[in-house]
Design a protein that fits this description.
Elements: E1 28-33, H1 48-51, H2 67-76, E2 80-89, H3 95-104, E3 108-114, E4 120-126
Parallel strand pairs: 1-2
Antiparallel strand pairs: 2-4, 3-4
Length: 143
Amino acid sequence: MRNTRWWKKRIEFRQGSLFEPIRAKEQFTAICSNPPYVEENEWPQLPPVIRLHEDPKALLAGADGLDIIRQLVQKAMPFLEPGGLLALEIGMGQYEAVLALLKENGYVDVDFKPDLAGIPRIAIARKPGELSSTIKKTDGEQA
C-alpha cells in the first residue's frame, strides 16, 4: 500500500468477491488480480508451509485451476474503459488456456510476462478502443 502514495489517489483498492464491490456502469483504466489458480488435485503436493497456513479457498480454482480466471475474463469487459487493461497472475502451464479465453472474449493486445524462471505468469490484455483518461505520475510526467 505504501507504493500507492506515488500514484496519489489514482489507485483504489476494493475487497469483495470478483466484481461484487463495483457499482453497475462503473469503469476502470485497469483491473489487476492475483486470483486463485491452483488445480484442486495439486493441493496434496503443495509444500506443507502452504497447506498448513493458507486457506484452500484462496488458492484452489477447480479441476483445471481456471474457474476464477474464467469468470474474471468473462465479466471484466463492462468494467473496463475502452482500451482498459486486464492483468492477471496465472498458474504454471495455464498460458495456452488463458490466451484462448482472452481472445475468445474479445480482448486485444494480449501479452504474457514471465517469472524469473521464464514461465509465463502474468497475462495482460486490453479491451478494444482508446483510453479516454491519462494516467499522470506525481511529478507531472505521463505514465
